[in-house]
Amino acid sequence: MTRKPAPHPLSLIAAGVALSLGLGAAAQAPLTSTQGAASDPDAVLVEELVVTGRLPGPAWWRVSDADTTVYVLGVPSLAPRQMQWDRGVFDRRLQGANVVILPFRPLRVKLIGAPLALVSYARLKSRTPFEDTLDAPTRARFAAVRGRLGQPADRYGTRNALAAGLRLIGDYREQARLTDTDPTKLIRLLAQQAKVPVEQKTYDLGPLLSAVARTPAAAGRVCFDQALVEAESGPAGVREAARAWAVGDVRGALAAERSYEQCLAGAPGAAAFDARTKADQVAAIARALRTPGHAIAVVQLRPLLSQGGVLDRLRGQGFEIRTPGEL
To answer: How far apart are CA 101 and CA 236, in angstroms?
Structure first.
């Protein structure tokens, strides 16, 4: 069987940084696991919004003003590829929708940012496998995981613990067939087939790639350790949460929402990027509310439901918010 080419290291780092910063970030300071939980802006949920859906399929929230409703579908940050879900409610709401607003994708590194990205990557490379820098017990665990993934030691040739963790988690999720793009990718296709306009903002991530190289060593090691735990634990928890999401069990869906990504709160630029993505999502929904009728927005569950998250901000702007428990 022909093995497909491995992604370029820059693309792996870009994907890891973007996913992590998009899920939540905090101040630029050395990080411990306790500090990570405390400073993560999506750690605290607005409990009255965490409601089980009453309609078939995944849960929906509604944001409305006098003459417009935006139906908001909360989606997992990580899920099995091509997971099955009841699309009946989605299909009905797609009919006649003014626009479908999607989370930011695809990732882009503009040409102007590429030199900085290349310099950052060069600072991360090493001829010495990362596992040679580890204590004996951790080295044995890491070697066991990469062995199950079919990866050689020199694939993780870096001096940076965070970079090693990002690559490890990318390899693990690829083998486990887990993705951060489903069901958004399917929703985009369905909207295009229905000829409904799609709004999906992109960002230049080139400057942010240097955050990996500049993340404090202690914070990077916390992230590597969490990546190792995730790869050791396997995909059962993510699959169970995805099944809960598919039947509108919001709390069950959130059970797998906190992964190693939350530990990246110490990456320089993380707080600003998190604030920017949330503000852009809120602005897109507010714009959709200016056109009479209805629209659809897709937002990852934690940023959607957290204190200071998308729904919390929209409510602060005076829009009416209705939960999945209200028909």
So the answer is: 30
Model confidence pLDDT, tens digit, residues 178-210: 998 899 999 999 999 999 999 998 876 666 666
Report residue 104 as tokens: 């930011």
Q: What is the pLDDT of residues 242-276, one digit of tens each?
A: 999 999 999 999 988 666 666 666 566 777 778 88
> Are 59 and 51 in contact, with CB atoms under 8 Å apart?
yes
Alpha carbons 247 and 237: distance in angstroms, whole number: 16
Distance (Å, rounded) from C-alpha 21 to C-alpha 265? Answer: 8
Q: What is the pTM of this model?
A: 0.85
Torsion over CA: 211, 217, 218, 221 (sign): positive
Residue 1 lies in a domain: no
For residue 231, being part of any structural domain is answered with yes
By residue range, what is the domain housing residue 126? 9-322
In this structure, is residue 94 part of a structural domain?
yes
Domain count for the chain, please give it. Answer: 1
Question: Once rounded to an integer, what is the mean pLDDT over residues 43-72?
Answer: 96
Tell me the two tokens of residue 231.
């790869």
β pairing state of 178-179 and 293-300: unpaired
Residue 112 lies in a domain: yes
Which DSSP letter does residue 262 get?
Answer: G
Rounded CA-CA distance 162/263 in Å is 10
Which residue intervals of 247-298 are DSSP H helices? Answer: 250-254, 270-288
Name 293's bridge partners.
Answer: 68
